[in-house]
Design goal:
The structure is a single chain. By secondary structure, the chain is α/β, with parallel strands linked by helices. The chain is built from eleven helices and six strands. Strand 2 (39-48), helix 2 and strand 3 form a beta-alpha-beta unit. Residues 112-120 have low confidence and may be disordered.
Amino acid sequence: MVGRIPLVLLACGSFNPITHQHMRLFELARDHMHQTGRYKVIEGIISPVSDEYGKKGLVSARHRVAMSRLALETSNWIRVDPWESQQQHWSETVEVLRHHYNRLHNPDRLKGSVQDTCVNKTKQDMNSYPGSPQLKLLCGADFLETFKIPKLWREEHIVEVVGKFGLVCISRGLTDMHRFIHESDTLTRHRHNIHLVREWIQNEISATEIRRALRRGQSVRYLLPDSVIKYIKQHDLYTAESELKNAGDILQPLKQTMSE
């Protein structure tokens, strides 16, 4: 892979809780980007959203970060980064991308990481692939459809996310990713920077359905890592009471645009 572009994949979301499917997206994306012949994926980052997001049933960020760390103990290239979850406000996706991009291009970008294994490997890969590293947002295909929701995104932010950074989108079910791009002039203009990945082995694990099963006392084994299931039981997470958290609230991104 000499001469390839070093690439970091960033996934933002609730991770409420993190599932095998979340981690599987990284593996699919890495395989695809390597197969392009242009990239060498050197790191994957999971960035849980802040508590201020306001989503119904969202448990505390400290629990979501802890569960993600437990789940990623089996990975030598994906890590959880708590920066976004520690903010006192909800951070727009473009803000999170800027933060990690600046850290990636800063000489001290690898200091203070919570996972030394990933840090050391990233340092080695940086030395092996001296080109300027790129950062791309890893997402499910339905993420493309959010660009069409009125007032959810600023147009200049869409241009920055897709044009400057780029997307790696994993298909789920029958989602037509090409149609989403075709129906948007902005996405069509930057389609060269949108990588579409088809997942042929269907896996529709839903965090919402997992929380429902947990509330009902049903088994979620083999849907989540055993370490995460143990943590959930130890801390009595995902109960009928916790699912009512933020009930009736408007998501922070919608609340923000409504006030403008």
